Amino acid sequence: MNGSLDGRTVVLGVSGSIASYKAADIASRLVQTGARVEVALTRAAAEFITPLTFRALTGRSPYVDIFRDGAEGEAHVELARRAELLLVAPASASTLARLAHGLADDALSLTALATAAPVLVAPAMDSQMWEHAATQANRALLAERGVQFLGPVSGRLASGRTGAGRMLEPAAIVDLVRARLGREHGDLAGRVIVVSAGGTREAIDPVRFVGNHSSGKMGYAIAEAARDRGASVVLISSAALAVPGGVRLVAVESARDMLAAVQAECAQADALIMAAAVADYRPAEVAARKIKRAGFDARSVDLVQNPDIVATVQGDFVKVAFAAETDDLLANARKKLVAKGAHLMVANDVTATDAGFGVDTNRVTILDTDGGVDELPLLSKYEVGQRLLDRVVSLLGARG
Ligand code: C5P
């Protein structure tokens, strides 16, 4: 994981539901992302999962019974003040009702009532309870007051039925917490960042394509880092990776699809980061039907040049390109920086086994238009994304 929530205080409110056990996974993920996690359990939640589990995961004693000793009520108000975000996951129907009506009769609802921090809720209940007019009225009331709903989604429910009311998966919930804390505190809040990722696929016929080894991991890591800093992120991708929560995906296949998507999305962008490995050439003609093996032997595939997306797209945004090279890394990257009209060029040597294609780490050098050469050590791709975004933030700041 990474330290995107370093030093942030997140209060996790857990209510009683068959999904309560998933709150342990959420607590663990939040801790691994660097957050200081404090847990408030309802009594019903403590029937499903023990406070001990949370104490072991977070290193702090959860709050359960407000009446255990005289000072407890005060302690909850303190907890509510310390919270930078309150996440209620799972949020049962009765917890939603308590929050909607301002009750403060347990550790969770008391904290929710006393905090000024953003409140995010991830409902989990049977579909009949979720769809009930009472729950829907509570949902509307809470949403109107600014409570952010994460799900629920449709899927298999504990009752065996399929329907609305299933809690969003822990990884997706934590992604949305990161996005929200980014919007509250991040230096890219209010900015639109467009990131391209993956190797484009240039069709030969309906089943075959010309492609490359790009996994898309670098672009996805940049998208996550930009989201964590509060940006609205558009990820234009031809890769088959899981889409990070809180990021908008525009799925594309070919270089020409990607060009159209980049042009459309860059109309509102503050920065374009072209991490995609765009195919330089595509088959001149795409066969309408699958080419038979017998006919293929004697055939050659004529190629024509694709548009250079980053060089083509124009506008008032920061442009970042990548140079994946096997030799003369810096000299080639510098030439491309100029030729493509980029503000920053990220040079990476794709012959290294611990960096570049397919792996989770990268070793890059960032070149700028003032002749600056910033050689970074081997880092996770997420951390490379963060360092790159530091540069983007300062370029955006210089523009005002
Ligand atoms: O020229 P080269 O392919 O090495 O340049 C790499 C950089 O240019 C990357 O940022 C890539 O996304 C971008 N590129 C592009 N359109 C192309 C080829 C590359 O935008 N047709």
Structural notes for this entry:
This protein is α/β, with parallel strands linked by helices. It has two domains: 9-179, Rossmann fold (3-Layer(aba) Sandwich), CATH 3.40.50; 188-399, Rossmann fold. Helix content is 37%, strand content 23%. The chain has 15 helices and 21 strands. The chain has helices at residues 22-32, 43-48, 51-58, 72-82, 93-100, 107-114, 127-131, 133-144, 170-185, 217-228, 255-266, 293-296, 309-312, 329-339, 381-399; strands spanning 9-14, 36-41, 85-91, 119-123, 148-149, 153-156, 162-166, 192-197, 202-203, 209-210, 232-237, 248-251, 271-274, 281-283, 303-305, 318-325, 344-349, 361-362, 364-368, 373-375, 379-380. A hairpin with a 5-residue loop joins β6 (153-156) and β7 (162-166). α1 (22-32) crosses α9 (170-185). It starts with 8 loop residues before the first strand and ends with a helix. The structure holds cytidine-5'-monophosphate (C5P). Cytidine-5'-monophosphate (C5P) binds next to α13 and β16.
Q: What attributes does this structure have?
A:
single chain, 400 residues, Rossmann fold, eight-stranded mixed beta sheet, 21 strands, 23% strand, binds cytidine-5'-monophosphate
CATH architecture of the largest domain: 3-Layer(aba) Sandwich
| Low-confidence regions | none
Q: Strand order within the widest sheet? A: 12-11-8-13-16-17-19-20
Radius of gyration: 25 Å
Specify the biggest β-sheet: 8 strands, mixed
Percent in helix = 25-40%
- The third-level CATH topology of the largest domain is Rossmann fold
**CATH homologous superfamily grouping of the largest domain:** CoaB-like
| List of distinct ligands in this structure | cytidine-5'-monophosphate
> Count of helical segments?
15
- Roughly what fraction of the amino acids lie in strands? 15-25%
Distance between the termini: 33 Å
